[in-house]
Amino acid sequence: MKTIIIHASQLVTCKGGVKYGKAMSDIGVIEDGAVVYDNGIIEFVGTTDEVLKKYSDIGSYEVINADGKVVMPGFVDSHTHFIFGGYRADEFSWRLKGDSYMSIMERGGGIASTMKATREASYAELYKEGVSRLDRMMTYGVTTVEGKSGYGLDCDTELRMLHVMRDLNKDHAIDIVPTFLGPHATPPEYKGRNMDFLKYNLEEVMPKVKEENLAEFADIFTEKNVFSIEESEYYLKGAKDLGFKLKVHADEMYDLGGAAMAARMGAHSADHLLMASDESIEALSKSNTIATLLPATAFSLGAEYARGRKMIDMGAAVAIASDYNPGSCHTCSIPLIIAISCIYMHLSIEEVITALTINGAAAVGRTDSIGSIEEGKKADIIILEKPSIHFLPYCTAMNIVETVIKDGIVVRG
């Protein structure tokens, strides 16, 4: 059935494709806006007057009156690790006492701890937890999420995680973009043999992933004491040859030049970037690689935030995502991320909206179908209970999403 949303106090379109630098402030707001969609696809966007003139007989349509409310694109959470076994609440308390993330990893915690729990988790257990986590994300207005493997570090578990994501993508309202992150760390059985582990992934695991079409992207954790620049380049070249699009965990703890490498390799995104140098930021600004920032992770670790303000000022395209995971950032709260981004990273709310919608869509290769309210795109739309986008940071860390529409269907509200 054709649906018309009318009288939006502000209709935020985010039209025009991925946005770089100053253009991130242009979110295409239409006052007293309206949008028409049919069979899940947007067919007209304009003012309420324009829509009512074009669609004079609205009696046969479903009408949603958004008077006094903001209508905007659904959020795209473009970096998460939402499929995993076990939890690491004790490690969070260790960090609160002063233990570093790297020291916890060296003690057998961190990714190694989740690896053990995930290897032991059944498909059914991972699926059930995945549904619960996606349901929570949806309450915050997320309509598309990227999900990474990387907590199995062996063929069977990595495939099991990706099978869960494939089936959740079919069964759940939220769309899932799957990423293979086999080299998230080196498992104990390959200790001291990083290159052998990368070859194992490229030669034994990833061909099976590709054969079953289980992942669109390949990612690697480029970090000191994890995978070097040289090892990462070897892996990324091999992944590209296998037909994967590329992502990189880059410059989180140390400045290794991972962001510049991601840009050089043509990655869709370079993620984290807390320690990215001026040279790496310049490389990103001259490329099509999205700088994906994860402010809730820095918040949870008590670390300095990535220099998002400088990245935008230098002309880069910035996305913002949750990094929801069992350890360093166990939250998928979009309201918290918005608050941190505006208050501590000094981004405007317009820039944050761009980062969570059309630029998030670019980070997962979906700008042709999601991330904005434009003719021909999917009707992935959220309605806020407030009349202005400025309530998003003002209602600090509070969820003001009232209605979530996915593929033209109201899935919350």
Helix content range: 25-40%
What is the gyration radius calculated from CA atoms? 21 Å
What is the 3D shape?
Answer: globular
CATH class descriptor of the largest domain:
Alpha Beta
> What is the correct CATH architecture of the largest domain?
Alpha-Beta Barrel
**Largest sheet, if any?**
9 strands, parallel
Low-pLDDT regions: none
Terminal residue distance? 18 Å
Architecture overview:
There is one protein chain. This protein is of the alpha/beta class. It has 2 domains: 3-73 and 372-412, Urease, subunit C, domain 1, CATH 2.30.40.10; 76-363, Alpha-Beta Barrel (TIM Barrel). Helix content is 37%, strand content 21%. The protein has helices at residues 48-54, 89-96, 101-106, 111-120, 123-139, 155-171, 194-211, 229-241, 258-265, 278-285, 295-301, 308-313, 334-343, 349-356, 358-363, 391-394, and strands spanning 3-12, 29-38, 41-47, 62-65, 70-73, 75-77, 142-148, 175-180, 217-218, 221-222, 245-250, 269-272, 290-293, 318-320, 381-384, 401-406, 409-412. Strands 6, 7, 8, 9, 10, 11, 12, 13 and 14 form a 9-stranded parallel sheet that branches. Helix 5 (123-139) packs across helix 6 and helix 9 packs parallel to helix 10 (278-285). The radius of gyration is 21 Å and the shape is globular. The two termini are 18 Å apart. The model has no long low-confidence stretch (mean pLDDT 96).
